[in-house]
Amino acid sequence: MTESRPVVTRFAPSPTGYLHIGGARTALFNWLYARGRGGKFLLRIEDTDRARSTPEATEAILKGLTWLGLDWDGEPVSQFARKDRHAEVAREMLANGTAYKCFSTPEEIEAFREAARAENRSTLFQSPWRDADPATYPDAPYVIRLKAPRDGQTVVHDAVQGDVTFGNDQLDDMVLLRSDGTPTYMHAVVVDDHDMGVTHIIRGDDHLTNAARQIQIFAAMGWEIPVFAHIPLIHGPDGKKLSKRHGAVGLQEYASMGYPASAMRNYLARLGWSHGDDELFDDAQALEWFDLPGIGKAPARLDFKKLEHVSGHHIAQMQDGPLMQELDAFLAETGAAPLTDIQRSRIESALSVLKAKAKTLPALLEQAHFALIERPVQIEEKAAASLDSVSRGILSELTAALQNDSWNRDELEAAAKQIGESHGLGLGKVAAPLRAALAGRSSTPSVFDMMLALGREEALARLHDQAG
């Protein structure tokens, strides 16, 4: 490939279901490679399987990519809509002698294979029509087959796997155009990649054998062959191919579990690719660092603990505005009610505290429970145990003491400490009934952080409700 050509990558999912996390990583790698080089990232929906392709699946793929923050150039290309172009190229290959009409019936092909099995020969079909005289063609349905080289080798120069060699005697004359005039997937992919100007094909290594066949089509048309980079698949924690038994495999499930999109980008980038020992990075670093030599040959393993660690880092580092947008998107994704103005104001006031420990957005909202509830506060059983008569008396004294004091952390802490000492109690013993009164729980953020977030009026009202 000529180095001066602008980089063009593509993501080409089949719209037959949700966006798999492996597909999301493939899309991310393509996006990073193109965007990091000022190139184009294109989207092609491979919807030639009309029985299984659905508009709903296409919509789910677009939604998943949008949530992940991957933008693409231009409109998504429908492979099915280009079937006439695919047929046109197949006929060009007929004309230039790199393809031929094959009139063999399915029964004849099966008979050939049965005989080959019986004689312990290769079952790769060798059509009797490959070099037939057109004058002998019958008036019957036919397919168009690639006239693949019978001798020698086809080498895939792969940017990840290295040179992978296939003996041409192991590759058959594949069908390009079926007897009904519809193209095969293998043929359509090559035509689309050429017409879209794709320079780098970054995809799962389950397509490696396909690359050898597709190279033969590129060569037959005299087209420039893109750079191939076949990335290992993602395995579960047990080292086996990722499946639903390992947990979430659809990208949207991770959105529903409350992992921020920035954390998913960071985590997915590190699944099979590395830049030294760097585990935690932002988009700018990923775009600068990502390159094909950094992709390993071994399958990557999904690790939920590592994902939580990455997620916690991104939540802690996120600016308040974007983090609130992530919260809003999460609530919408899960069908929860949006935040009220009061709830939003309280959470924003406490964000610096809330995001320091939260690994996920639900964990952050769990810590923000005090900001989401209204009076009268429902007291959980464990928290209620801290509200004895002495504690309620302390709440009453504290309520009175804080009526006119400045509403800042130092004043709040000093008042609580002074009243506790007057009862022979440390600050920890005073904090327990405060937690119960403010949040109805025994485990909460700092009581003083909650009071500041709630504001004087609401905080004192909650204390007064439980005072003796």
Automatic annotation (TrEMBL):
Binding site for ATP: 244
Pfam families membership: Anticodon_2, tRNA-synt_1c
PROSITE patterns given in the database record: AA_TRNA_LIGASE_I (PS00178)
Molecular function via GO: ATP binding; glutamate-tRNA ligase activity; tRNA binding; zinc ion binding
Motif ('HIGH' region): 13-23
Gene3D superfamilies per the UniProt record, alphabetical: 1.10.10.350, HUPs
Domain Glutamyl/glutaminyl-tRNA synthetase class Ib catalytic span(s) in chain numbering: 7-308
Family that this chain belongs to: Belongs to the class-I aminoacyl-tRNA synthetase family. Glutamate--tRNA ligase type 1 subfamily.
Function: Catalyzes the attachment of glutamate to tRNA(Glu) in a two-step reaction: glutamate is first activated by ATP to form Glu-AMP and then transferred to the acceptor end of tRNA(Glu).
Subunit structure, interactors included: Monomer.
NCBIfam families reported for this sequence: gltX_bact (TIGR00464)
Protein name: Glutamate--tRNA ligase
Organism: Paracoccus sulfuroxidans
Gene: gltX
